[in-house]
Amino acid sequence: MTQTAPILLTVDGLTKAYPGVVANSDVSFTIAEGEVHALLGENGAGKSTLVKMIYGLVRPDSGSMTLRGAPYEPSEPRAARADGVAMVFQHFSLFDALNVAENIALGMENPPPQSQLAARIRDVSETYGLPLDPAAIVGNLSAGERQRVEIIRCLLQDPKLLIMDEPTSVLTPQEVEILFETLRKLSAEGTAILYISHKLEEIRNLCDSATVLRLGKVVGTCNPREKTATELAEMMVGQILHVPVRAPRDVGDVVLEVKNLSAESPNAFGTSLKNVSFTVRAGEVLGICGVAGNGQDELLAALSGEVRADAGAVLVNGTPVGALGPNERRHLAILAAPEERLGHAAAPDMSLTENALLTGAIREKLTNHGFLKWPAIRAFAEKVIEEFDVRTPGAGNAARSLSGGNLQKFVVGREVLQRPDVLVVNQPTWGVDASAAAAIRQSLLDLTAEGAAVIVISQDLDELMEISDSFAALNEGRLTEPRPALGLTINEIGLMMGGAHGMEVAHV
Amino acid sequence: MDLSTINPVVLIATLMVAATPILLAATGELVAEKSGVLNLGVEGMMITGAICGFAVAVETGSPFFGFIAAAIGGALLSLIFGVLTQILLANQVATGLALTLFGLGLSALLGQSYAGIKPPSTFKLDMPLISDIPVLGPILFNHDLMVYVSIGLVALVWAALKYSRIGLVVRAVGENHEAAHALGYKVVRIRLLAIMFGGACAGLGGAYLSLIRVPQWTEGMTAGAGWIALAIVVFGSWKPWRVLLGAYLFGGVTGLQLNLQVAGADIPVEYLSMAPYLITIIVLVIMSADKSRAALSAPASLGKVFHATS
């Protein structure tokens, strides 16, 4: 970015309050044409609300915006798109059952006929090195390919400002590099990019300037290339971060052994497990990485007992458990915390007390001949809330009323406190702020110090590098041979995850 | 039993007539479900259309106005469902069931003075030359206008869903309402329109029963046709031409059943009357046994409450 580039967007004093919480308070910043501007902040810092206002999905309570010198007040996304503002969403706004061309047509104001559109899609995808088949059904695409659909949908409208909300959370390191090439190319052509992330290295790598948000307020603006990642993190969190520490410990006998585990996915668009084999010893953390949708949910289901397999495919301390259901496995101290918090890990409309009972009944002996022991259940729920710092008015509140991060702490804490021998967690810190994430990781490490075998499935490579003893990757339902985590480079991990999934680097 | 009394040509011609009310209602429901709305009130909307159409046709002497009134009546009734489920966010299943009961009661009230009256007869399409062609003539060219309207409607819905912008938006809303909202589409408005289209089609189907097929007004005369229409949408896996096939198959079984009774089949009449419904259930069970296929073709947001959070 050159210092003389004209200002594209000015955001001045935007404020948005929801009942009980001020999402944005007096937020101001500017973006120049061709600038890559980072919006940095923890979950709940108000980044999403801010970009939704810029994209016309949410109306600000007060404050104003100026786009290329003219007042800019988009009343709906259509108006924002007409003014040259496009957005790639964090949770893709795609339609699984429709094909690529139809998905792209839905995001355009006046789409050309399908045949012409298909040609233009091929054209743009060639130019930016993002190959796509216009006739492919989106439900069958990988996460990286789905993101390409979103990006091309935006590019076809020739945007002046491209908003990207956490674009790399679903990509392999190689795919991230390809995405960055595309973004740099766009920026060189004069398109401004508003890049939202909490991954500091990426921002230092890509962005020209950064606005840091904390609790809805701007707490700083800086050039991220001149700051260290630690400095940025402290601006973001407002305090010194505690890195989880690993107590020295001896690795014990093999606790969990998985041999040639194959299982059909229960979902139509899911990935079936194919011949998965690994072992986990007492006191060991096995980190399993992989791009979303490569069999993570299915692996957790097969280990927790939601999906049954051959009895001999899963052995715990030598006992075959592959054919047992979740409750029988809980008796044997095999516990799991799935990724989807609302509806899978917790029943949204039931209270925390009731949710504590749902998985804790067996290990914590919360029932008596079929009758519920309410005082004991309440005590257990309160213990989870207390020890994992779950912010809620009380255990009687519905799970739905908690923020994502708080519910995640509850869900993981509920399993950790049941003293499992084997614990499987999927995305344990997804959507949790940095200090709480550190606390959750610490609790997993503490668990291994007591001799448990822990399997962490995650898409956050930094998290896995921090806590894993050994490392394996899921790719299209197959698991790579686990390798010691010590000494692995990001590049090697990327290759384990399947490299760039057939993507090519942009022909810049 | 004398099977030779069953004339296949007549059988096919009757099955098209027997299937038309169900086909009309099922096509309308297909559009509503494609937009993500499960309206179980088809039966209620059909019977309301039946009496609205009957009453207006008798009063004006014109079956044409009768059908128009039936469509409007069905659409208005479905609008109650639409407001309750889309704006007041009521549960779709419960509201749909209530709509059926409400429609049955309302039609009985409206129809009190119309029992036993004969409606004005509907113009039949007169195609002198081609309707005399053996076999093809009676099957294809010897029906009342509504049979052709219903087939045209299926073609229209199919083409609109597949090729038109509005069809794409309807499918998108039914597939993922959150994403459609994020892209700036008016989910609630689109669904209300789809619900009203479904209501109008169900109304036409009802009026076909009271004005052409029976033709007279009796309380509860739809006798479960609305429920069969709902089943046929699933049977047809939300595809218009398969819905047509399903409706004709059902019409065929009904017709065959009547023919078998006439032929003196040695089976109690009750079993024969049961047959179409029994076969529908069996086919549905077979269809949905393959979970992945059923899950793939069903609109992903079907029956889910949409509440714009941002």
UniProtKB/TrEMBL annotation, chain A:
Give the Gene Ontology MF terms in alphabetical order: ATP binding
Check the record and name the Pfam families matching this protein. ABC_tran
Domain ABC transporter as annotated: residue spans: 9-240, 256-501
Q: Does the keyword Nucleotide-binding apply?
A: yes
Q: Which SUPFAM superfamilies match?
A: P-loop containing nucleoside triphosphate hydrolases
* Keywords recorded for this protein, A-Z: ATP-binding, Nucleotide-binding
Q: Where is the signal peptide?
A: none
Instruction: Name the chain's protein.
Output: ABC transporter ATP-binding protein
The organism's lineage is: Bacteria, Pseudomonadati, Pseudomonadota, Alphaproteobacteria, Rhodobacterales
Automatic annotation (TrEMBL), chain B:
Top-rank taxon: Bacteria
Q: Which UniProt keywords apply?
A: Cell membrane, Membrane, Transmembrane, Transmembrane helix
What does the UniProt entry say about where the protein is found?
Answer: Cell membrane
Q: What's the main place this protein lives?
A: membrane
Pfam families to which the protein is assigned, alphabetical: BPD_transp_2
What's this protein's name? ABC transporter permease
Record PANTHER family:
ABC TRANSPORTER PERMEASE PROTEIN, SUGAR ABC TRANSPORTER INTEGRAL MEMBRANE PROTEIN-RELATED
The membrane-topology field of this record reads: Multi-pass membrane protein
Q: Which residues form a coiled coil?
A: none
Q: Does the keyword Transcription apply?
A: no
> Per the UniProt record, which residue ranges are transmembrane?
6-25, 37-58, 64-84, 96-115, 135-161, 192-214, 220-238, 245-265, 271-289
Which residues are the signal sequence here? Answer: none
Q: Does the keyword Membrane apply?
A: yes
